Structure formats: C-alpha cells, structure tokens
C-alpha cells in the first residue's frame, strides 16, 4: 500500500514507500512471494479484494490463482499508485477481470458479505489501530471468507557477517524510536508487526487463524535488486537522526553497507529474515446477534 506521507527518503532520495522502492522490494523476493500465494490455495473464480494494492505488484500473482472466471478489486488511498496499477494492468492478460478504486481499508467500496478473500500485503505496519481496521474489514467477507495479512518483522532480520552486538544496538534503537516518533509528528510505523498479526486477527473476531512463516535467505553474490533493497533498509535503520544510537554506531553501520569494504561484496555475506502470512475466517453474526447490537446501539 502506498502511503501519502513520505516516511523516510534514503540517501538516494528514494522514499521507502515510493513506487520504485516497492518494485525493488517486490523483485528481490519474487520467488518467496509466489510461494506465499500458492500456499493460500485460493479457489478459481474467487472474488478477491487486494486491500492496499499500491501500484498493483501483487495483481499478477493473485490473478493467476483466481483465474479469468474470478474478479480482483484493488483498493488504495493513493491516487498516484492507482494510476500506476491501472497502467500496469491495461495491456495485461488479466485486465478484463481486475479493477481498481480509491478507498480506505475500513470502508471498502463494495457491499457487505460479498468477498471470498481480502488480501493485504505490507500494509498493517502502517496501521495505528490494526485490530479495529481488521474488524471493520470482516463484514465485507462472505460467511467463512478469509482475511489474509502478510507483513514483515524486523525482529527476525539477521546479517551473519556483521557484529552481532552492533546489530542488536541498531535494531533496538530503531524499535524504540518507532514507539516514540509518532508523538513527534512522524507517521505511525511498526516494522515488528509480523509476529503480532495472529493475535490481532484473534482480537478482531476472526477464527481458524493460521500463521505461515517464510524465511528469506540471500547469500553472496547478490542480485542488484536485493542490494538496492538491503541498502535502503540499512539506511532506514539510522534515518531521522537515529536518536538512540551513538555517532560511532551510526558510522560503523553505514560503513557496513556503503563503504568500499561493504559486507554486501564479501563472499561470506548471508542475510536472513522471516515474513509472516496470517489468515483468519470471518463468520457473519446471526440475525439475533445483529438485532441485539442494533438495540444496544440505539439505547446508547
């Protein structure tokens, strides 16, 4: 999902939520993302909502599984991203059964009880109140329909050829900063959200919650897309002044990724991180429950 407000522009001047960044990130993990979609076992002919679709990078993967007899509705809050998604789709094989609309996640442009799947990738990290948003999405699903949330968790990120103590200080400083920065006017962000998703779906009223984890490992030599991705992430860890890190730690971290002796160019380079895909079923409340809710609402 593209976010209207820039979170951080790295040293290349590239906002980490900009289209180019999203495309680079997507390309660097293409094989794992294909597997994620296959593992969902989405039925042909499904009506699927891509909630926070951004520039439509996941659309081809989703279109493969729903097929031409299905339908995909991509929604996003960014007009720019939706324009790019439509352009990407215009001359594609899936154009006839995909459409895009501008909307927020908690107010989807469709009737209640019609979607088979609501899929949302790398969006929950930007939600200050994810439980409320997930709960608001539920009624748009058919009875027994599934919400699928995919996201990162940088608590799982490890570089095997970087000093472990330095990594720990950098990661802890960023996690602490994310807990503080929203109070200083920055947009909300939780890059440790992946491992929390199952509990969020449970709190939002979903059942039969299933969590799949995907360990993404890259070793030297690295494709350019992954180098660009990792350099962007490395710079992001020390952005906005890195208030909880010493100047020496910032410099050491920078040297690891951007100096002539970058760890990315070493034959012993190995990076691992785990991404989370969590699904939950939505069951529509009975008419009696709905009446009780309406009565309670009127009496308040």
Q: What do these coordinates show?
A:
The protein is an alpha/beta fold. The chain has one domain (19-299): 3-Layer(aba) Sandwich (Rossmann fold), CATH 3.40.50. It is 37% helix and 21% strand. It is built from 10 helices and 8 strands. It has helices at 19-28, 30-39, 59-66, 79-90, 130-137, 164-180, 197-203, 224-237, 247-258, 287-299; strands at 47-51, 71-76, 98-102, 115-121, 141-151, 158-159, 207-219, 270-282. Strands 1, 2, 3, 4, 5, 6, 7 and 8 form an 8-stranded mixed sheet that branches. Helix 5 (130-137) links the parallel strand 4 and strand 5 (141-151). Helix 1 crosses helix 8 and helix 6 (164-180) crosses helix 9. It is globular and about 55 Å long. The two termini are 36 Å apart. Keywords: Methyltransferase, Transferase. One of its GO terms (molecular function) is methyltransferase activity. Residues 43-165 form the Methyltransferase domain. This is Methyltransferase family protein.
């Amino acid at each position: 999902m593209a976010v209207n407000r820039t979170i951080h522009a790295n040293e290349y001047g590239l906002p980490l939520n900009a289209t180019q960044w999203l495309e680079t990130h997507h390309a660097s993990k293409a094989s794992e993302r294909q597997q994620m979609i296959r593992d969902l076992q989405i039925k042909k002919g499904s009506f699927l909502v891509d909630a926070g679709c951004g520039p439509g990078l996941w659309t081809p993967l989703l279109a493969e599984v729903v097929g031409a007899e299905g339908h995909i509705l991509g929604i996003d809050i960014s007009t720019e991203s939706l324009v790019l998604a439509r352009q990407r789709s215009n001359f594609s094989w899936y154009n006839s059964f995909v459409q895009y609309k501008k909307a927020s996640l908690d107010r989807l442009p469709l009737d209640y009880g019609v979607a088979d799947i609501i899929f949302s990738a790398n969006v929950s990290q930007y939600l200050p109140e994810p439980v409320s948003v997930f709960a608001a999405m539920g009624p748009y699903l058919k009875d027994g329909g599934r919400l699928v949330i995919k996201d990162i968790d940088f608590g799982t990120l490890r570089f095997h050829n970087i000093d472990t103590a330095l990594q720990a200080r950098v990661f802890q400083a960023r996690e602490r900063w994310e807990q503080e920065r929203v109070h200083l006017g920055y947009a909300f962000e939780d890059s440790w959200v992946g491992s929390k998703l199952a509990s969020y779906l449970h709190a939002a009223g979903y059942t039969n919650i299933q969590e799949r984890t995907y360990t993404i490992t890259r070793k030297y030599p690295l494709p350019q897309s992954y180098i660009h991705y990792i350099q962007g992430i490395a710079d992001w860890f020390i952005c906005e002044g890195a208030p909880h890190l010493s100047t020496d730690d910032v410099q050491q971290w920078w040297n690891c990724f951007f100096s002539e002796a970058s760890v990315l160019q070493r034959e012993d380079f190995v990076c691992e991180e785990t991404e989370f895909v969590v699904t939950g079923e939505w069951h529509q409340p009975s008419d009696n429950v709905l009446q009780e809710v309406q009565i309670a609402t009127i009496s308040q």
